[in-house]
Amino acid sequence: MSPTLSLFCSFHLFFLIFLFINTYIYIASRINQSTVNILDSIVHAVSASST
């Protein structure tokens, strides 16, 4: 694998992750804030009980 190709692949992977995070933030902001708060508290409760 040439260095240029591996660099392009890593950049493409970074771009896909960046796009996924932006999409998640956009969807989360579109959803009602109370729903996000409920999901957030559920995640905190699960992570607290697992530790």
Description:
The protein has 51 residues and is mainly α. It has one domain (3-50). The protein is built from 2 helices and no strands. It has helices spanning 3-30, 33-50. The protein is elongated and about 50 Å long. The chain starts with a helix and ends with a helix. The model has no long low-confidence stretch (mean pLDDT 85). The chain crosses the membrane at residues 7-27. Keywords: Membrane, Transmembrane, Transmembrane helix.
Distance between the termini: 42 Å
**Low-confidence spans: pLDDT under 50, at least 5 residues?**
none
Shape: elongated
Count the E strands.
0
Round the Cα radius of gyration to an integer and report it: 17 Å
The average pLDDT value, as a whole number, equals 85
Written as H for each helix and E for each strand, in order along the chain, the element string is: HH
**Count of domain modules:** 1
Name the assembly state. Answer: single chain
Largest sheet, described in full?
none
Structural class: mainly alpha
Task: State the helical fraction.
Answer: over 70%
- Per DSSP, the total helix count is 2
Q: Beta-strand level of the residues, as a percent range?
A: under 5%
